[in-house]
Amino acid sequence: MVDGSPWWAPHVYADRRDFLKARGRIAAAGRRFFDDNGFAEVETACLQVSPGNEVHLAAFSTELTGPDGASSRLYLHTSPEFACKKLLAAGEPRIFTFARAFRNRERSALHHPEFTMLEWYRANEPYGSVMADCLALARAAATAAGAGVLTWRGRRADPFGAPEFVTVTEAFSAHAGLDLMAALDDRTAMAAACRRLGIRVAADDDWSDLFSKILSERVEPRLGAGRLTFLTEYPACEAALARLKADDPRVSERFELYACGVELANGFGELVDAAEQRRRFEAAMALKQARYGEAYPIDADFLRALEIMPQASGVALGFDRLVMLAAGAERIEQVLWTPVAERGAA
After folding, report:
1. How far apart are CA 288 and CA 164, in angstroms?
2. How many angstroms separate the Cα of 109 from the Cα of each of 7, 153, 290, 321, 336?
3. What letter does residue 222 receive in the DSSP assignment?
4. Burial category of 103 from C-beta neighbours within 10 Å (exposed 0-12, middle 13-18, buried 19 and up)
């Protein structure tokens, strides 16, 4: 903690207790929202055969030992997404979960190795529906915390005002002076834009790396200023598990929600094409192997579930971040009941 004392030291805990009480009220408000809208709360297993297949995510692994002594590798999931979509395939129409999620090599004011992901899905509904859910939840959180506004490090966002909707292309034009559609798949153009903006370019940066650098350094800090911002229509190469837009396959049905320059949620019109999803996973893991010298398994059971999963929309919301901004905390440890120790046992 700030003065070197552990989180359980009475004076440290006393400073955090109001944030933790607000956390409980916000969680209760979230559950009321989902209950009022016909969602079932589900619990997903943290141990999975694949932790997810994104290039830059680092997972925790462990060994499962059976009664016969045989062992196999499992992972703590980085998101409950695969398990939730299997439940959609099973027939659940609306589900949500407050899931413990785990990401290695991540620790900062906004990141923690173990955190809570609030994730929910609507079968046979467009992704505009889950955008509306995000807005309702942000308002419920602000009300439950008692402040009625979201704040972080001197910035404010009023969740009760009309939100801003801006495409990624529009945001890059406004905040980075870059025509993103003209620079699609053009690393040279992206590298030139980075250098013009004073952003360091590494020799092994690919197009997506440069896109992420411009997004994080020049675009994101300007989003969610005064009101919530929905950043929409991510380039197809950044679609992850989202489907492409039918009227413009250069971009996807993916959005992120921002407040005070902080990303709160990542949502999709969900991809249900198992062959296309496998292609994306294989390409991502080949790049991960080349970049980091490791790759994670592809969950074949998940791909089988996609074959019968209905059209759907879904969102992963960083619950701890929402609590931070609603309660006025500046670091994620302030809103966690028992933060992960930064050092191992003596």
Report:
1. 34
2. 15, 11, 30, 10, 12
3. G
4. buried
The contacts found for 15-18 with CB under 8 angstroms, 24 or more apart, are: 15/334, 16/333, 16/334, 16/335, 18/327
Q: Could you give phi then psi for residue 293, rounded to 5 degrees?
A: 75, 20
Angle at 244 between CA 242 and CA 248, to 5 degrees: 150
Q: Both ends of the chain: CA-CA distance in Å?
A: 18
Q: What are phi and psi of 111, to 5 degrees?
A: -125, 145
**Token duo for residue 154:** 């001197």
Helix (H) or strand (E) holding 320: helix 319-327
Pairing of strands 248-252, 254-259: unpaired
Q: What are phi and psi of 230, to 5 degrees?
A: -100, 115
The backbone torsions φ and ψ at residue 136, rounded to the nearest 5 degrees and listed phi first, read: -65, -40
Contacting residues for 276 by C-beta, under 8 A, at least 6 apart: none
DSSP 90-113: HT-SEEEEEEEEE-BT--SSS--S
Domains of the chain: 10-163+228-335 (3.30.930.10)
* Mean pLDDT per 10-residue segment, the chain (346 residues): 80 96 98 98 97 95 94 97 98 98 95 98 97 98 97 97 98 97 96 97 95 97 98 96 96 98 98 97 96 96 98 98 98 97 70
pTM over 0.85: yes
DSSP state for residue 238 in the 8-state scheme: G
CA angle 263, 260, 178 (to 5 degrees): 70
C-alpha distances in angstroms, 18 versus 24, 148, 317?
10, 16, 22
For the record, the structure tokens of 179 come out as: 């025509």
Tell me, what DSSP letter sits at residue 202?
-
293, 301 contact by CB (below 8 A): no
Long-range contacts of 217-222 (CB under 8 A, 24+ apart): 218/175, 218/176, 219/171, 219/172, 219/175, 219/176, 220/258, 220/261, 220/263, 221/261, 222/175, 222/261
